[in-house]
Amino acid sequence: METGLSGKRAIVTAGANGIGRAITETLMAAGARVHICDVDEAQIAAAREAMPGIGATLADVSDIAAVDRLFNEALGEMGGLDILVNNAGVAGPVGPVDEIDPEGWRRCIAVDLDGPFLCSRLAVPAIREAGGGSIVNISSSAGLFGFPNRSPYAAAKWGVIGFTKTLAMEQGPDGIRVNAICPGSVNGPRIDSVIAAAADVRGMPEGEMRDIWLQQISMRTFVEAQDIANMVLFICSDAGAKISGQALAVDGHTESLSA
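Predicted structure:
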């Protein structure tokens, strides 16, 4: 099974930390050149130090001008593009819909759904010119279920899957395959903060809320960032050459999202 990416050129949004960092490291280890963006200048500096050879742009994917700058810099530096990983996302506000601040809603939709659109619209011509390639959108298990008290996030992640399937239909004739990965709960500070907020809304201890989340997963375990990165590598490589238009769960099998 061939999963090498020698000579391939990739952009990974929010690639300096967390899942994005794992994706960046994995693509580079497979031979790809990678340009990342992030909103945290300190994280970009740390990523540059840890991963010599990456390109990096300080950019918020919800900002049209910032995305234009990202692609100008990345394409100018790498001379083209074969892979786009739309990883950037925010957790959004937690609470029942009548208590959600409209600005929190708009920010979540802007990053989690507008961001993949803004990046893909610039990536498609470059990947087409390269003769085809891969776009990976990071959705969520929240894009497969209803998610009480997380309506902005769930709405955005369902939207990402609809966008993915439509883009796969549009771009398939040009050899561009488009897939969504749906992570479950990924170990790390972000899920810790989400669980804490959910526990607060329900008025229960964080440990009890974590146990409830684990009981909703068949394998009774959260996933690791590297699990997501491994799936990105597979579907961007020749091993995944005929996979397109799919929403691929990497989640230990989520049975429901009722908490």
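Summary: The domain at 9-186+224-250 is CATH 3.40.50.720 (Rossmann fold).
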